[in-house]
Design brief:
single chain; 4 domains; Rossmann fold; lipid metabolism; alpha/beta; lipid degradation; 6-stranded mixed beta sheet; Short chain enoyl-CoA hydratase /3-hydroxyacyl-CoA dehydrogenase; oxidoreductase; binds acetoacetyl-coenzyme A; 3-OHacyl-CoA_DH_NAD-bd; 8-stranded mixed beta sheet
């Protein structure tokens, strides 16, 4: 863990204004050294008889973005952020916060405790605590409603959305916006309010509490409807705002403190905080010690189907110049139509203005000429998932691309090392496995094979980050065709589900059990959405594992033409234009006949059995990938499952869940199931090792 600098706060003086400057890179998090530094500087500044006013400012790219989240699991150290905010608010001389970059969470709370706030025009403000399963715990739930009213305060705290300085001043969150030098303006402003007494507007500002009770009650109902009664932080935020309306500040602060402590101790917050750090850890690649990402401006994408078009949109949204290469005129037109339709929908839904939609398209060139590839810094091959086609295309790309260009293939399952070899320049080849819809999904697996250069890997990693997505490194050795991290685990997940389907469960029961665990969709809903024919083609193209049980139900469905949503029939039947289906009785009949043919007497599975088996399969597959070195850290697997497959984020991912159960209990549950299907339930060596050593997956995260 990085240590905070020893003296992260400085006290300066500009005439009669004391300037407290925070400098705690990279984001000025308010760790204990910063809090102590601010408190000491403030006391000294106020005690000085030459001080008429105080400015709190920060160096670097941003005002503090919040409490130091890493300290949440440690013993509390004084002053707490809440105590510091009270100290600021009670200061006998006016305190002005000067905000640049983003003032988030505790950073904004600190600014709200100051008597005045001035912000750079580009500054943004928000209270994102809800994304960590907590609430603003340094007085923010009490000060914000007093500053901007309870309704807007609830909006900000329940969504975690940021507001720009222009809107913030209209709301009353800040007092002044400036386009000039922030520090100079803040000092001048402090001078102008130096004589103002009393200093604190927050405490004296009264809210018509009773008048707002109906809208608070409505918000509580909305939270219950949308998130359920168990979503702790959102309900506690509403409680705190209610307290702000009905109780004096001091009592409100006590309500907030107790609510904050409940939230921070919750499993939900533990999971969300783990997710936050896991995503950042995943983006750290070992190749960073050897190479830095090269500059990428021009991106070429070969193949304009659903995936290629989605990648093109993602790249356009992030400001890249994009060339999309398709076959023939019809291919070009189809891709143009697909991308154009996306922008039309975005404009119709108000996500983009017409001008923004049109402007994005000016950075897109569609062509059927491969020789345009010579201009690109990075090329993504996204044609059909067929080894021979991809190998031939990569050879052509390899011959045309600039010597310093990086070439990525979007293969899901094919042998990356063999494709790299076929390109004629394996060092320049990496895998970039996007998840559909690529313009939305935040996950990209970066496939790294033995011959890939550190430079190519880092350039690909940098590109993914520049897309605003999370790169997760998947190390694949020659011959590995099981689909990086995500799809390998998905296979085990589906296999566990299919066995239960064959043995007595129904698709709707399995889907329901997984939804009640927290997945948005169950495995058979996902299968209907992605199209049964795609998985069928993959099964047909690879040799069967003679030691694994094979469940033919999905194959039989494809033979009947039941392909899922695209044919309106799959595990569910879909009415025209509907994405929500009703169970397909014909599939239930097919399954019953199938069981009879195989001599299987159906047995009952409880929802709990279903969840347990599927989670065991996921964790065991994850542990296998760790053993094979495909995944570097358990937390990388958590990230893939949360971002790529909708594993509930508040649980922090399957490996974190496994730690809560403990690897030794998981290993003993697997040993009970093993005789049923050794290929699936035989414990992975890493899991056995952790069980024997009484260790947890988290112990492997540091590596
Ligand atoms: N505490 C500790 N570390 C933090 C942090 C925080 N609040 N916010 C960011 N960091 C760290 C990141 O872990 C990362 O560290 P590494 O380089 O070691 O990985 C580094 O700062 C840079 O962060 P990002 O990679 O995320 O940089 P970015 O430019 O993409 O994003 C950001 C910057 C928007 C501020 C983003 O980091 C972010 O959203 N941070 C969290 C903000 C937040 O949730 N604040 C509320 C905290 S809770 C609170 O304040 C409660 C309270 O009331 C007491």
């Amino acid at each position: 863990m990085k240590q905070a600098p020893k003296h992260p706060v400085r006290l300066e003086r500009q005439g009669n204004v004391a300037l407290i400057v925070i400098e705690n890179p990279p984001v000025n998090a308010l760790g204990v050294a910063v809090r102590r530094g601010i408190a000491a500087a403030l006391n000294a500044a106020v005690a000085h008889d030459k001080t008429d006013a105080v400015v709190i400012a920060a160096n670097g790219r941003t005002f503090p973005v919040g409490a130091d989240i890493r300290e949440f699991d440690m013993a509390p150290q004084e002053p707490s952020l809440g105590q510091l905010c009270n100290l600021i608010e009670r200061a006998q001389k006016p305190v002005v916060a000067a905000i640049q970059g983003t003032a988030l969470g505790g950073g904004l709370e600190l600014a709200m405790a100051a008597h005045y706030r001035i912000a750079a025009k580009s500054a943004r403000m928000g209270l994102p605590e809800i994304h960590l399963g907590i609430l603003p715990g340094a007085g923010g739930t009490q000060r914000l409603p007093r500053l901007i009213g309870p309704e807007l305060a609830l909006d900000m705290m329940l969504t975690g959305n940021q507001v720009g300085a222009g809107i913030a001043v209209e709301m009353g969150l800040i007092d002044l916006v400036t386009d000039n030098d922030l520090r100079t303006e803040a000092v001048a402003y402090a001078r102008s309010v130096a004589v103002t007494r009393p200093t604190s507007a927050n405490r004296t500002h009264l809210v018509d509490g009773v008048g707002y009770m109906a809208s608070v009650a409505a918000r509580r109902e909305q939270v219950t409807m949308e998130l359920g009664v168990n979503a702790l932080a959102p309900h506690k935020i509403v409680d705190c705002v209610e307290a702000a309306l009905l109780l004096p500040m001091e009592t409100g602060l006590e309500v907030e403190r107790s609510a904050f402590e409940d939230c921070i101790a919750s499993r939900e917050s533990e999971g969300l905080r783990h997710a936050f750090f896991a995503e950042r850890a995943a983006a750290k690649f070992p190749e960073a010690t050897e190479a830095k990402p090269a500059q990428v401006d021009r991106v070429a994408i070969v193949g304009g189907g659903m995936m290629g078009s989605g990648i093109a949109i993602a790249a356009l949204q992030s400001g890249f110049t994009v060339t999309l290469v398709e076959q023939g005129e019809s291919g070009v037109n189809a891709a143009l139509e697909r991308i154009g339709a996306y922008y039309e929908r975005s404009v119709a839904k108000g996500r983009l203005s017409e001008a923004q939609g049109a402007a994005a398209l000016t950075h897109l060139q569609l062509t059927n000429k491969l020789d345009t590839l010579g201009e690109a810094d990075l090329i993504v091959e996204a044609i059909a998932e067929d080894f021979d086609l991809k190998a031939q295309m990569l050879a052509e790309i390899g011959a045309l691309a600039r010597p310093d260009a990086v070439i990525a293939t979007n293969t899901s399952y094919l042998d990356l090392a063999a494709l790299a070899e076929a390109s004629g320049r394996p060092a320049d080849i990496v895998g970039l496995h996007f998840f559909a819809p690529a313009q939305v999904n935040k996950l990209v697996e970066v496939g790294v094979h033995d011959a890939a250069s550190a430079q190519s890997v880092m350039t690909a990693q940098g590109f993914v980050r520049a897309l605003g997505k999370t790169p997760v490194r998947a190390r694949v050795h020659a011959g590995f065709g099981a689909g990086y991290i995500g799809n390998s685990i998905l296979e085990a997940y589906r296999h566990a589900a299919d066995i239960m389907l064959e043995d007595g469960a129904t698709p709707a029961q399995i889907d329901g059990a997984m939804r009640s665990f927290g997945f948005q969709l169950g495995p058979y809903q996902v299968a209907d959405l992605s199209g049964l024919d795609i998985a069928y083609a993959r099964r047909q193209s690879k040799p069967r594992d003679p030691d694994a049980r094979y469940v033919e139900i999905a194959d039989k469905m494809v033979e009947h033409g039941w392909l899922g949503q695209k044919s309106k029939r799959g595990y569910y039947i879909y009415a025209e234009g509907q994405r929500q289906g009703v169970p397909n009785g014909d599939v239930l009949k097919l399954i019953a006949e199938h069981r009879a043919q195989k001599g299987i007497t159906p047995r009952k599975f409880s929802d709990r059995d279903i969840r347990d088996r599927i989670l065991l399969a996921i964790v065991n597959a994850g542990a296998r990938l760790l053993g094979e070195g495909v995944a570097a850290r358990p937390s990388d697997i958590d990230v893939v499952m949360m971002l790529g497959f909708g594993y509930p984020r508040s649980r922090g991912g399957p490996m974190m869940d496994a730690d809560a159960t403990t690897p030794s209990i998981i290993a003993s549950r697997l040993s009970v199931l093993e005789p049923e299907e050794p290929a699936l339930w035989g414990a992975a060596p890493v899991l056995t090792m952790l069980a024997q050593e009484r260790q947890k997956f988290a112990d492997l995260n540091a590596g």
